[in-house]
From TrEMBL:
Localization per Swiss-Prot or TrEMBL: Endomembrane system
InterPro entries: ADTRP_AIG1 (IPR006838)
Residues annotated as transmembrane: 65-86, 106-126, 146-164, 176-195, 215-240
Keywords associated with the record: Membrane, Transmembrane, Transmembrane helix
Protein name: Androgen-induced gene 1 protein isoform X1
Catalytic reactions on record: 9-(9Z-octadecenoyloxy)-octadecanoate + H2O = 9-hydroxy-octadecanoate + (9Z)-octadecenoate + H(+); 12-octadecanoyloxy-octadecanoate + H2O = 12-hydroxyoctadecanoate + octadecanoate + H(+); 12-(9Z-hexadecenoyloxy)-octadecanoate + H2O = 12-hydroxyoctadecanoate + (9Z)-hexadecenoate + H(+); 13-(9Z-octadecenoyloxy)-octadecanoate + H2O = 13-hydroxy-octadecanoate + (9Z)-octadecenoate + H(+)
Membrane topology designation: Multi-pass membrane protein
Amino acid sequence: MATNAPATNSLFKSVFGALRTLLHLTAAVQFTYGIYYDYKFVEFPAQTDPNSKLIYHPFGGKFKYLTFLNAIIQALYYVISLVNDFVGTNELVPRRAPAIRKFKDWLLSTLAFPVALNVGITFWTLYAIDRELVFPKVLDPVFPSWLNHVLHTNIVVFIVLEMFTSYRAYPTRSKGLTGLAIFMGSYLVWIHIIKHYSNVWVYPVLEVLQLPQRILFFAAVLGFTFALYLLGEFINNVVWAKEVKLSLRKSK
């Protein structure tokens, strides 16, 4: 029995590695196709009632939505993960990690995990409260249900699976939170530029909030996103505790 242990362990690693690559391939294909379909075929309905509040303006296109930007981040992450599966390394604690592995680890830690959970949790929470605040019924004929789940549900499912199937070396907390803060801060500036030039808030929920409420809302979103970064770091430290300790010893 002991002589078969190395062979069994090798077989397990091979099967696990193949499943991980399949996960990356499935995610890369679906998110890339979701981006393509959303950009190419989803057109917001024209305003027919001149007395109704305008909910969409073409300025900024799809790139004004955090959902769309997040889908790009997810697709990029899984494409890079797929490339890393073949030309990089998935060693738990490599002696010298290649550049693509370092970028993969940084991208998940700093953006892919916290932004995906932010989009998924915020969307479905507001949807449960009042869907008109985030996804008005007028969009149902042009925004298929499967695409809604790809962009708002599957992003969370796949990134959580990734946390449990691939170890990554988190950056220092200051560097990780700084990168996330730059991204989220830039997005807040961007949606205010959209509002300035189109006179339409990107999300209907912002239309019903007064200035003090909007400030609190933005502060809560930022705080929530930073908390999600810390959650990802915590999950990584718990699930991959042995690898984290080994990595810390090697860095000394």
